[in-house]
Amino acid sequence: AAMDARLYSVSDMVDILESGADADYLPGADADGKERLTPDHRNIRGKEYFAASIKQSNNQPITTTNKMETNDKTTPITPEKDRNTISMNLMHRMRLHGMAAAFTESLQSTFAETMTPDSFLNWLLSREWDYRTARNIERLVKNANFRYGDASMAQIDHTLPRGLDRNQMERLAALDFVRKGDNLFITGCAGTGKSYLATELGYEACKAGMRVLYANASKLMGTLKIAKNKGTIEAELKKLEKAQLLILDDLFLVPLDAKERAHLTEIIEDRHGRKSIIVTSQLPELDWYDAIGDPTVADAILDRIVHTAHRITLTGESVRKLKALKRR
Questions:
Q1: Are 191 and 158 in contact (CB under 8 A)?
Q2: What is the pLDDT of residues 57-106, one digit of tens each?
Q3: Cα separations (Å) of 299 from 183, 220, 305?
Q4: Exposed, middle or buried: residue 173 (CB in 10 Å: 0-12, 13-18, 19+)?
Q5: CA distance 196 to 281
Q6: What is the pLDDT of residues 190-242, one digit of tens each?
Q7: Closest CA to 276 of 174, 176, 183
Q8: 83 vs 50, 89, 107, CA distance in Å?
Q9: Residue 315: enclosing H or E segment and its boundaries?
Q10: CA 125 to centroid of chain Cα atoms
Q11: Residue 46 CA neighbour count, 13 Å, CB half
Q12: For the whole model, what pTM was predicted?
């Protein structure tokens, strides 16, 4: 057929194809152009056999052998769930837990129906903001390691005769001194509430989103000595430096040794003019110089903290004693 085709022009070939005259050259046709069929034999299954198989395949669900593993971030959204459930899942997957809680409340009541769409969105965003703020405060308070777990401005007893000025406490609670990098010294006899007042101001700083660290001065110096021996002193000092407000409780309760003087000097130097320190001490401020021990180191430490310090001097009976008398 190929040899014969060479005898025709392109136009002739087109005419042959359009007229069907090429059927003479098809391998499945006889010489007269009729289709050649395979004779029947016993190995033919028949149309009914395959029709039954096709029907059975159409009734079975489609399965795949290789199933992709999914997690909380890759799991596709299934359309068969209702819109509210899908919205809730998306909120949790995006960690909008405060918004999800608010949305749940809206589904359990009818007050959301009275809101416009923009008001409803604003309400959801406000709830998410409040949730994140509360979680952040919880984290800051936990990391601060406060001595008292219930310190607050409302718990301060201003009726006790101990020389505490309410107006001064309210000004300090505004935390302007922390933002300026100033210091605060709280001194007085044992039991007058020095640690409690320092902790209360620390709580206020946490509420304002500030990083706070509370430490008993003697225990801190011991920790730094151990860290020095282990070679981790830099990491410990870095942790102290990160705190915007550092509370050193009961400083100078015992005189400092040479290693403690060096550690305290580093702490003060790292924070000087940038971040605040609250110092509580039973020792009057005029005696701190002698408590430090070395005149050169005392000059260096006090010169960096006393000139920008606010002061509270407490007097009177021990608060612990007064509370014990009330319980009798």
A1: no
A2: 666 654 554 555 556 555 555 554 588 888 888 888 888 888 888 888 88
A3: 17, 22, 10
A4: middle
A5: 12
A6: 988 899 999 999 999 999 999 999 999 999 999 999 999 999 999 999 999 99
A7: 183
A8: 44, 10, 12
A9: none
A10: 17
A11: 4
A12: 0.67
φ, ψ at 94 (rounded to 5°): -90, 5
How far is residue 193's CA from residue 245's CA, in Å, rounded to a whole number? Answer: 19
CA–CA dist 199, 206 (Å, integer): 10
Enter the tokens of residue 105: 């409340």
Alpha carbons 23 and 197: distance in angstroms, whole number: 107
- In this structure, what are the phi and psi dihedrals at residue 47, rounded to the nearest 5 degrees? -65, -35
| Cα separation, 266 vs 316, whole angstroms | 35
Secondary structure percentages of the chain, helix, strand, coil, to 5: 55, 10, 35
Residue 166 sits at the vertex; the CA angle it makes with 163 and 172, to the nearest 5 degrees, is: 105
Give Cβ neighbours of residue 254 (< 8 Å, ≥ 6 apart): 218
Only one residue has tokens 């320092």, namely 198
Q: How many residues appear in the chain?
A: 328
Exposure of 309 by Cβ count < 10 A (0-12 exposed, 13-18 middle, 19+ buried)? middle
Q: CA–CA separation, 270 vs 275, rounded Å? A: 8
Q: Which amino acid is at 190?
A: A
Q: Which residue has the tokens 């550690």?
A: 263
Q: Map residue 179 onto helix, strand or coil.
A: helix
Nearest by Cα to 314 from 173, 160, 174: 160
Paired strand residues for 246: 213, 277
Residues whose CB is less than 8 angstroms from the CB of residue 84 and which lie 6 or more positions away in sequence, other chains included: 103, 107
Helix pair 194-207, 117-144: axis angle to 10 deg: 150
